[in-house]
Design a protein that fits this description.
Rossmann fold; 392 residues; alpha/beta; Glycoside hydrolase; four-stranded parallel β-sheet; single chain; 15 helices; six-stranded parallel β-sheet; glycosyltransferase activity
Length: 392
């Protein structure tokens, strides 16, 4: 498996890769993962993490495309090439831009290639504001289409990506498995632990609105902060807790909050391990997903739903693929929409409670680890059967 990501790190794609690996291991496979030198250790029996050599001075990689990825991806490709030269593998699994590596390596070594399509790469370079150059975007569109057409099978992570993949080919088998696996083994925080965290963050006794995830521009955090003054006016004891982000992003957003005079009602707590997410979500009276653009479903939504807490989310396609008015309060992707939604839920705790419970029940039926594993096993067994037919 080739994953051009920091593995493991607390963000969407690495989490998804982790869960897909867990499913493969559960099925009895072993996995050699070629990935970046950056990331936290992972102890899963049957998984061997093969990291590229460290590049001096490069200690982190931002979400999405960046110049740092060019030398890193080159090393990933060379390392994967070397591994295939010295070992015999049954097949290749690739994620994101490593799909292009998979096409080349599959042709060189005669191995079947399964591509995990986490996003439309051409859309990703635009939404991340990496470039708006039409020629470069067109090149990436061609590469993405080439990957989908030449892969032996594709796993798409949400309905929009599935539709995009199907529009690119009529021959490649396309499967859809939502990145909905939630680590249900994580222990629920105790009331004492929740109370201690409230005290440490100085949350008082007022309501708490929580966001977890990266602080990239497409997440809509700037709009969220612009929504806070109106909420603070109505509910002066309410506090916002934002979990995630890098130091430079936090400093920029804190400066924005200070200009608006609401920095004292926001707690930027930075990145925390996956194991601590239940604790922060347990603090919440409302969980927030203010995303402003994109079509990929945010991984956090599945965890939010399982928490049983009411969700306030912007009504854009990336979110409405999973959320509906029955299980979340959906608002326009504006500061005014976010403030009005927060005020509505804080003003009507019963409505908030009902939404949270409906969301939890919906997640148990559609987005549990059991459902994810069942879908994964069906796809992997069909892919393995095709491998055996080819070998025969």
């Amino acid at each position: 498996m080739i994953a051009p990501q920091p593995f493991l790190e607390e963000r969407g794609a690495p989490f998804a890769i982790y869960h897909h690996i867990k499913a493969l291991l559960y099925m009895g496979h072993t996995v050699d993962l070629v990935t970046y030198h950056i990331g936290k250790p992972v102890d899963l029996p049957g998984l061997r993490i093969l990291r590229i050599p460290a590049i001096p001075g490069l200690h982190q990689v931002k979400v999405g495309p960046s110049m740092a990825k060019f030398p890193l991806d080159l090393l990933v490709f060379l390392f994967a090439l070397w591994r295939l030269c010295i070992s015999r593998y049954d097949c290749l699994h690739t994620h994101e831009e490593a799909g292009a590596m998979g096409i080349l390596l599959s042709a060189l070594f005669g191995r079947k290639h399964l591509y995990y399509m986490h996003s439309d790469l051409s859309q990703q370079i635009v939404s991340s504001e990496f470039t708006h150059n039409p020629w470069l975007i067109r090149i990436v569109e061609i590469v993405q289409k080439w990957i989908v057409q030449k892969a032996h099978a594709v796993i798409a992570i949400c309905p929009d990506i599935e539709g995009t993949a199907r529009s690119m080919t009529s021959k490649t088998p396309i499967y859809m498995i939502e990145n909905s696996a939630v680590d249900e083994s994580l222990p629920a925080p105790s009331q004492a632990e929740i109370a201690l965290t409230r005290q440490e963050l100085g949350l008082g006794t007022g309501p708490v609105l929580v966001y977890t995830g990266t602080l990239e521009t497409y997440q809509g955090i700037e709009r969220l902060i612009r929504s806070i003054p109106a909420v603070h006016k109505m509910f002066p004891d309410a506090t916002y807790v934002l979990v995630g982000g890098q130091n430079a992003q936090i400093e920029r957003l804190y400066a924005q909050a200070k200009e608006l005079g609401v920095h004292h009602v926001i707690r930027f707590v930075g990145q925390h391990p996956l194991a601590e997410m239940p604790k922060y979500m347990a603090l919440a009276d409302i969980l927030l997903s203010p995303r402003s653009k994109g079509t990929n479903t945010p991984l956090k939504l599945y965890t939010y739903l399982h928490s049983g807490k009411p969700i306030l989310a912007t009504e854009i396609y990336s979110q409405t693929q999973v959320l509906s008015p029955d299980i979340a309060l959906l608002v326009p992707p504006t500061a005014e929409g976010l403030s009005q939604g927060a005020i509505e839920l804080l003003s009507d705790p019963q409505q908030a409670k009902v939404l949270g419970e409906k969301g939890r029940l919906f997640a148990e039926e559609h987005y549990s680890w059991r459902v994810f594993l069942k879908k994964s096993m069906a796809v992997q067994e069909e892919f393995a059967a095709n491998l055996q037919l080819t070998a025969a």
